[in-house]
From TrEMBL:
The lineage of its organism: Bacteria, Bacillati, Bacillota, Bacilli, Lactobacillales. NAD(+) binds at G8, P9, R10, G11, K12, M13, D44, G99, T100, T101, A123, A124, N125, T126. Its main location: cytoplasm. The active site is at H156, K160. It catalyses: (S)-2,3,4,5-tetrahydrodipicolinate + NAD(+) + H2O = (2S,4S)-4-hydroxy-2,3,4,5-tetrahydrodipicolinate + NADH + H(+); (S)-2,3,4,5-tetrahydrodipicolinate + NADP(+) + H2O = (2S,4S)-4-hydroxy-2,3,4,5-tetrahydrodipicolinate + NADPH + H(+). Its EC number is 1.17.1.8. Homotetramer. This is 4-hydroxy-tetrahydrodipicolinate reductase. It comes from Candidatus Enterococcus murrayae. InterPro entries: DapB_C, DapB_N, DapB_N_CS, DHDPR_bac, NAD(P)-bd_dom_sf. Residues 2-125 form the Dihydrodipicolinate reductase N-terminal domain. Catalyzes the conversion of 4-hydroxy-tetrahydrodipicolinate (HTPA) to tetrahydrodipicolinate. Belongs to the DapB family.
Length: 266
């Protein structure tokens, strides 16, 4: 069994990952780690994540207290906790799956560099279907990217903190790479005022409202026709299942920087 620690178990993703990992035949949970000062520190992980039963392991507020007992860490928490988790994982040479978003390019580079010393997998989105969509985007961009106008529209609930979403940024980076460019060179975030569309740009549009689930659509607009590639999530279980699959994969790898595409062999 792969001994696993969940960072941020009270969060939306943390709860689901814990619930799926608790029923896994390959993962065994050894601890949860929450922010300091929360009233649930010291409680059973199963109760904290509303699993409905005790798991026999506690939620602590210091990763170093429990990290020696684990094989892999799954972190879907906050930027601040994510960077601290990376630091500690490198110090103790533990595999890390991080799905937290909102990092700057410089902060994301720290995770890439982490792959020099630990098995490291960073993914803005761990859904299997989203990563298949990413592969389709690479194929479409290679075939028609130079002759179409590319726009990315993403929708999330009102509580989403970053815009565009990490998933949308990752999609744009894949598209820009296929166009032999960098995303900051091409990205246009929203539009107002007068003037035609800048040729070769990638337009971003972020919608935040109510409890709207995650939705991403990439448009390839030609003349007389339009291709749309979309992913719509009805709940978050697919993302959580994907995170657990990533942890199972990563526990058997040497130090290196991995992606969900590696897990799925895309």
């Amino acid at each position: 069994m792969i001994k696993t620690i969940i960072i941020g178990p009270r969060g939306k993703m943390g709860r689901l990952i814990t619930q799926i990992a608790a029923d896994s035949e390959e993962l065994t949970l050894v601890a949860g780690v929450g922010p300091k000062g929360r009233d649930y520190i010291g409680q059973d992980l199963g109760q904290v994540t509303m699993l409905g039963r005790d798991l026999g392991v506690s939620v602590v507020d210091d990763l170093t207290e429990v990290i020696k007992d684990c094989d892999v860490i799954i972190d879907f928490s906050t930027k601040e906790m994510g960077l601290e988790t990376l630091r500690v994982a490198k110090e103790y040479k533990k595999a890390l799956v991080c799905g937290t978003t909102g990092f700057s390019p410089e902060e994301k580079e720290l995770f890439r560099q982490g792959g020099r010393t630990i098995p490291m997998l960073y993914a803005a989105n761990t859904s299997k279907l989203v990563n298949v969509m990413n592969r389709l985007l690479q194929l479409a961009t290679s075939a028609i990217g130079q002759e179409t106008d590319i726009e990315i529209m993403e929708m999330h609930d009102r509580w989403k903190k970053d815009a565009p979403s990490g998933t949308a940024k990752e999609m744009g980076e894949l598209i820009a790479h296929e166009l032999d460019a960098k995303l900051p060179e091409l990205a246009v975030y929203g539009r107002e005022g007068a003037g035609e569309r800048k040729p070769g740009s990638i337009g971003y549009h972020s919608v935040r409202m109510g409890d709207t689930p995650s939705s991403h659509t990439v448009f390839f607009g030609g003349f007389g026709e339009r291709l749309e590639i979309s992913h719509h999530a009805t709940d978050w279980r697919g993302f959580a299942k994907g995170a657990c699959d990533c942890a199972i994969f990563l526990a058997n790898q040497e130090a290196g920087y991995y992606s969900v595409a590696d897990v799925l062999k895309l």
